[in-house]
Amino acid sequence: MRMRHQLATAVAVLAVSGAAISPALATSPRTSSADDTFLRTAHRNNLAEIATAKDAGKNATTSCVKRVAKVLVRDHMKMDDEVKKLADKLRAALPGSPTDEQKKQLAALRAKAHTKAYDAAWLKAQAAGHEKTLDLIDHELKYGHDEKVRHLAKKLRPTVVMHLGLVHGGTCHDSHNDHKAAAGNGS
Fold it and tell me: Counting CB atoms within 10 angstroms of each CB, which of 7, 35, 70, 98 has the fewest?
């Protein structure tokens, strides 16, 4: 009889603790595949943009490219901080580095350092990269499930559009402005 009472007590304790745990698990942050892909890809793109922009700051030949690179470093660092904060909050794992393809592109770019060909290749790569990032953001806005991730994508979009304007068509479009449309301010 005593054993039966202990067993019943143990089952009751498990049921109560299970009930207490279940809602916590049900509400723990999780991202959908689309949201997870957005966070991972945005992070990798930011890492690649920061690396290539820092490289342009050292290896570009024109002051326009160097100014645009400085804007990109500043903004992508801010954007990546926001991506990392949200990923941490949602417990989404982020990669530690750019993709192998992004690393190869940087290596190919470095081979042209201190030449006009470097500037042209850098601008062309930036235009293509920002177009892809804009597509990534638009995909998240259309197909993402997590409202916080979608909000972040919407918040980052104006900065990516501004960056694309700076390098559109593989041409430097800076006009000595200290571009104030830093990550997330919506300008």
Answer: 7
Cβ–Cβ < 8 Å for 39, 144: no
Q: What is the pLDDT of residues 66-79, one digit of tens each?
A: 999 999 999 999 99
> How many other CB atoms sit within 10 Å of the CB of residue 21?
10
